[in-house]
Design a protein that fits this description.
Blueprint: E1 3-9, H1 15-23, E2 26-32, E3 39-44, H2 45-52, E4 62-66, E5 69-80, E6 87-94, E7 101-110, H3 116-119, E8 124-127, E9 131-136, E10 145-148, E11 157-159, E12 170-171, H4 172-175, E13 181-186, H5 192-198
Parallel strand pairs: 1-4, 2-6, 7-10
Antiparallel strand pairs: 1-3, 2-3, 4-5, 5-6, 7-9, 8-13, 9-12, 11-13
Pfam families: Ribosomal_L25p, Ribosomal_TL5_C
Function: This is one of the proteins that binds to the 5S RNA in the ribosome where it forms part of the central protuberance.
Family: Belongs to the bacterial ribosomal protein bL25 family. CTC subfamily.
């Protein structure tokens, strides 16, 4: 699914101009990268926010239509109003079809309710990481990465090296030798082992 956002070039810059833009229901922003100069842009807040609230907007190649011309970009930064939760500013980076990109992609955890460590072991799930930085070409970027807990026992964890990735994608952490844990199931407190230890011998 391609997410399309529309923008126009912003000629007037500065704090006062940005404030007037926001009052008019628009969002100031910038698009940069590639072999082109950075361009100041403005976007309709209502249209932008409808896309922004979806998870895929934050980890997908977006189609930015700027003055009628489409280009592929990634969301790189944004600022939210601390009270009103409106978008104050937004940055996009142009992407190349031939250069690898680094993007944080969310994890989707499946089969949590049937994991042996929960269903029969009585353990509790701990999400250690909810997203990870991946390296890939733009065409290979997934919206999310699935982590299957269907065989996870209590007292065990799933590490980055145990997660099956689509072709052409790698975890940046793992490439640097950091096989971090992503999710674990803690053993229940006061479980059968502890009870056995506390029961005096006859």
């Amino acid at each position: 699914m391609s997410i399309e956002i529309k923008a126009v070039k912003r000629d007037v810059k500065g704090t006062g101009a940005s404030r007037r833009l926001r009052r008019a229901g628009n969002v100031p922003g910038v698009v940069y990268g590639g072999d082109q100069a950075a361009v100041s842009i403005e976007l309709d807040h209502k249209e932008l926010f409808m896309q922004f609230r979806h998870e895929a907007f934050h980890a997908s190649i977006l189609s930015l239509v700027l003055d009628g011309k489409a280009e592929s970009v990634l969301l790189r930064d944004y600022q939210l109003h601390p009270v009103r939760n409106t978008i104050q500013h937004i940055d996009f980076q142009r992407v190349s079809a031939t250069e690898k990109i680094h993007v944080k992609v969310p994890f989707h955890f499946v089969n949590e309710e049937v994991a042996p460590g929960v269903k029969t072991g009585g353990g509790s799930i701990s999400h250690i990481q909810t997203e990870a930085d991946v390296s890939c070409l733009a065409k290979d970027l997934p919206e999310f990465i699935e982590v299957d807990l269907g065989n996870l026992e209590a007292g065990h964890a799933i590490h980055l090296s145990e997660i099956k990735l689509p072709k052409g994608i790698e975890f940046v952490q793992l490439a640097h030798g950091d096989d971090a844990a992503v999710v674990s199931i803690a053993k229940p407190r006061g479980g059968s082992d502890e009870a056995a230890e506390e029961t005096p011998a006859a």
